[in-house]
Amino acid sequence: MSRYGAMSFFVDYGDDADPDGDGRPGLTCETTGPTSPFRDSVSSGYSHTYRKADTYTITATGYYCGEGGLQTVEKAATVNMAKPAPAPKVSAAAHIEYTVDGLTATLVPSVTGTQHEMKYGRNKHAKYGVPLVYTMSFPEGAEVSGGATKGGIKRATCTKHGSVEFDPVMLSGDPVVVTFPKPGTYEVTLSADACTSQRIVSKAATIAVPPTHPTLEPTTPTPTEPTPTPTTPVPTRPAPTTRFRRSRRPTRPSRRRQRRRRRRPRPARAPKAETDRMGDDTNALSLGVAGLVGAGALGGIVVARRRLQQ
After folding, report:
1. Which among 30, 82, 207, 228 is least surrounded, fewest beta carbons within 10 Å?
2. What SUPFAM superfamilies does this protein's entry cite (predicted)?
């Protein structure tokens, strides 16, 4: 029979493993007759795993019917199977740097370290120095007015090959500007998905917004007079103390003066003249004279009693 392939094909890997091939036992070669070209190949290739690191000789042998019968053709190749290189050590860390001005904070999120290469589209070893995905979260009431709070390469997948350093530039390209509703303490979180053993790295920053105070207008300082140089005091004698005598009580008038004052006759009141309309004028006059004399005698008796009492 005439065919377009070799009689058989074998690959020996140089160790104790069985060879791979497509031998067809039971066929024999004719020594006469027509000839025909042939070609034999392994389109999918062969795969073999060695148990230990060493140098091996791989031999490929093909069998065909040639002149005089069965013939062979060989090809050898030497391979050095070294120990598998350990996976590079990769690690990542998230950071948030910020400054505060009043109620507004300016944030710079970033990721530092190294990560494995990515697989993106047809590229099996894409070297991107950015996380797969990153997001930022803010407290309720905060308003973001600048920068990007999320991003990354969502369609990429991580590999275990190579080591790529993260881009030192901040993630969003522009700082993130956030305004808080009032003074207080707020927490902002950055979460990044990286091709490392940690897979997800995060950072929480506590931002303190101090209370605002009214701006005071500067006052012009009042010029002060120069302080006089102190002089040594000259000792002086104390002034003499003036003594005041206690004033005496006013003296009472002597008894003689009291007596003299009492001896002064007091003007006697004139008795009321009464007239007896029933009698005559003579009786009326005598009664008036008698009244005067009686009044004088009565006054003398009163003065005598007062003297005896004193």
Report:
1. 228
2. PKD domain
The Cβ of residue 284 has, within 10 Å, a number of other Cβ atoms equal to 15
- Alpha-carbon gap, residue 76 to 257, rounded angstroms: 174
First to last CA, the chain: 195
CA dist 292 and 269 (Å) reads 10
Domain-wise residue ranges, the chain: 8-81, 91-209
Sequence-separated (6 or more) residues with CB below 8 Å from residue 289: none
Per CATH, the number for 91-209 is 2.60.40.10
Give pLDDT tens digits for 219-267. 666 666 666 666 666 556 655 555 555 555 555 656 666 666 665 556 5
Residue carrying structure tokens 């053709």: 73
> Cα(153)–Cα(129) distance, rounded to whole angstroms?
11
Can you give the pTM of this predicted structure?
0.46
Q: In the numeric block, which tokens belong to residue 114?
A: 């190294």
Q: State phi, psi for 282 to the nearest 5 degrees.
A: -65, -45
Tokens at 78, concatenated: 């030497």
The DSSP H or E segment spanning 299 is helix 281-309
Give the number of other CB atoms < 10 A from CB of residue 161: 15
In contact, 205 and 187? CB cutoff 8 Å: yes
CB-based contact 200:123 (threshold 8 Å) = no
Q: Which of 274, 273, 275, 253 is nearest to 262 (CA)?
A: 253
* Other residues' Cβ atoms within 10 Å of the Cβ of residue 55: 10
DSSP 218-270: PPPPPPPPPPPPP-PPPP-PPPPPPP-PPPPPPPPPPHHHHHHHHHSPPPPPP
Residue located via tokens 């190294």: 114
